[in-house]
Design brief:
229 residues; alpha/beta; two-stranded antiparallel ribbon; globular; HAD_2; metal ion binding; HAD family hydrolase; HAD_sf
Amino acid sequence: MTVRSPVAGTIQAAVRAVLFDLDGTLVDSAPDLAGAANDLRARHGLPALPYETLRPMVGAGARGMVGVAFGRAPGDDGFDVLREAFLARYAERMLQETALFSAVGRVLDALDTAGLAWGIVTNKHGRFAEPIVQALGLRARTLVCGDTTPHAKPHPAPLLEAARRLSLAPSACIYVGDDLRDMQAGRAAGMPVLAAAWGYLGNGEAVHYWGADAVLQGPDDLLNWLQLP
């Protein structure tokens, strides 16, 4: 675990809740998202792409999947049709291989035992996020989805809404995520931010340059950072 903040002990003492990103932080949804992209490529007569090519872009959702699978970006001809087809296929298989990352269950149990509230703030829309959270037995105190507020991350609105629902000041919450946008959203909301290095991370700047208060190598590192047993 790489800690950046020189006042880490002060931060930990103020934490009353932990907010998590969903995909790439709590849940490994990459097999189903990548699978949906390759299923759609097959329909278009294209060969499957290696999983290693698709995985880094999972955090960018349908936009990222269509981008890497078909080389199309928002505004390009045919992008919207491909995006809708991808989402339809993903809806059919989104629980086929998706599972919690190893150790996540143990970490969440430890937070419950310590009396720390925890919630989920994701850019995934509710029609996808809610069934996944329910199926995997995630007992989050709050779930804020990509369509819960008028803005998605990196805007701070979803994180501020989560803090409001928990009746906490944003500074009493920390946010854990695997994308630069998570760090940007958390900073804008006035929350300490921790980077989940086991996640998807994207293809941009390396995780250690995101300006996080800590870079966690595995879920258990969160307990070490919080100074919990």
